Amino acid sequence: MDNVTDYLRTWAESYQQDLTDNIMPFWLRHGLDGKHGGVYTCVNRNGSLMDTTKSVWFQGRFGFIAAFAYNQVAKNPEWLAASKSCIDFIEAHCFDEDGHMFFEVTEDGRPLRKRRYVFSECFAAIAMSEYSIASGDKTYAFKALELFKQTQKFLSTPGFLEPKYLPVLQARGHSITMILINTASRIRAAISDPVLNTQIDESLDAIRRYFIHPEFKALLEMVGPEGEFIDTCNGRLINPGHCIETSWFILEEAKCRNWDKELVRMALQILDWSWEWGWDKEYGGIINFRDCRNLPVQDYSQDMKFWWPQTETIIAALYAYQATGDEKYLKMHKQISDWTYAHFPDKECGEWYGYLHRDGTVAQPAKGNIFKGPFHVPRMMICGYMLCKELKENK
């Protein structure tokens, strides 16, 4: 690459401007609920509301993003207020009597559905910790830590969370393992407690021991209790976007540990393997799912291009370049960025499409639903801005 400094400067400015002028205004205008508090995410292409059901995940996710943007990009009081609105809604409406959070609620906070996951808790905790940093109110850091410990209790209490499979199939999943790294890391930025480092170490060890399968050059989504390969459709599943997200979580932790060589090696191995599995050599972009034996994938969306694997790859490529200085990863960043920005942003109505067919055409134009909203895209822009700025300053 001819002029790396110019490249990094251009992207830093682009991320900052896009976040400030496009993504955050879109969600403050169309998503923020001024009456009940919290955020709507089920919005159409132009931001019009399609469904008032509120995703509990997104109360925490946007609570985090608004505070994270405030801390890292601009001290915009609207962003801080939006974060507080989401957290207030969470505390008022999103916990069941047993302490386990709901998955969906009505616009005024009446419960609709619970699920067996603890992702609602993880996102609520990072919202509280980031808001604590932004506001200076330490009580929210203590709330985040307490919620994290409660989440660990849910996970370790037999029978509290309904298992995914009946007892005939014993398995462990990658998703919760990887999300606990990021959750503990984000809380640790606001408050210190040994339980956070312990959880990160345990998750890193589990990824290393159980989920990385060199025989397939892959990180698998589901394995047996001791990492055994399960030769079923679900056991063979590779989710390149999840794997790449894990790689940058590990690189971020390696950075906190003065670029721990073993963590960097593990993260780059996951990134390189997952790029090879995920990058669509015919159409471009990161594909949804692959089978580690190259058999047909069961999931109906297996060959689609979703928004979030692209954003995770953009972040991971920048972290990998920062860790190594190897321009291979800057070229990866350019390759994924060129494809992503050619297909996902909606230049007429703002924000990004979420769901594309394999060839990059739009599958459906809505800007949000229960799973897509103001999280992956703004997180990529905030992290991208921070990393490009750091890289440029160190040139």
Care to give the gist of this entry?
The protein is mainly alpha-helical and 395 residues long. The protein contains twelve helices and twelve strands. Helix content is 55%, strand content 7%.
Secondary structure elements and pairings:
Layout (H helix, E strand, L loop, with lengths): L3 H27 L23 E2 H17 L4 H17 L10 E2 L5 E3 L5 H17 L3 H18 L15 E2 H15 L5 H18 E2 L4 E2 L2 E2 L13 E2 L1 H17 L4 H18 L11 E2 L13 E2 H18 L2 H17 L11 E2 L5 E3 L11 H18 L2
Antiparallel strand pairs: 1-2, 2-3, 4-7, 5-6, 8-9, 10-11, 11-12
Explain what this protein looks like in three dimensions.
Belongs to the N-acylglucosamine 2-epimerase family. One of its GO terms (molecular function) is N-acylglucosamine 2-epimerase activity. By secondary structure, the protein is mainly alpha-helical. The chain has two domains: 1-162 and 365-394, Glycosyltransferase; 172-344, Glycosyltransferase, CATH 1.50.10. It is 55% helix and 7% strand. The protein contains twelve helices and twelve strands. The protein has helices at residues 4-30, 56-72, 77-93, 119-135, 139-156, 174-188, 194-211, 240-256, 261-278, 307-324, 327-343, 376-393, and strands spanning 54-55, 104-105, 111-113, 172-173, 212-213, 218-219, 222-223, 237-238, 290-291, 305-306, 355-356, 362-364. Strands 1-2-3 form a three-stranded antiparallel sheet. A three-stranded antiparallel sheet has the order 10-11-12. A two-stranded antiparallel ribbon has the order 4-7. β2 and β3 form a beta hairpin. α4 (119-135) packs parallel to α6 (174-188), α8 (240-256) packs parallel to α10 (307-324) and α9 (261-278) runs antiparallel to α10 (307-324). The model has no long low-confidence stretch (mean pLDDT 97).
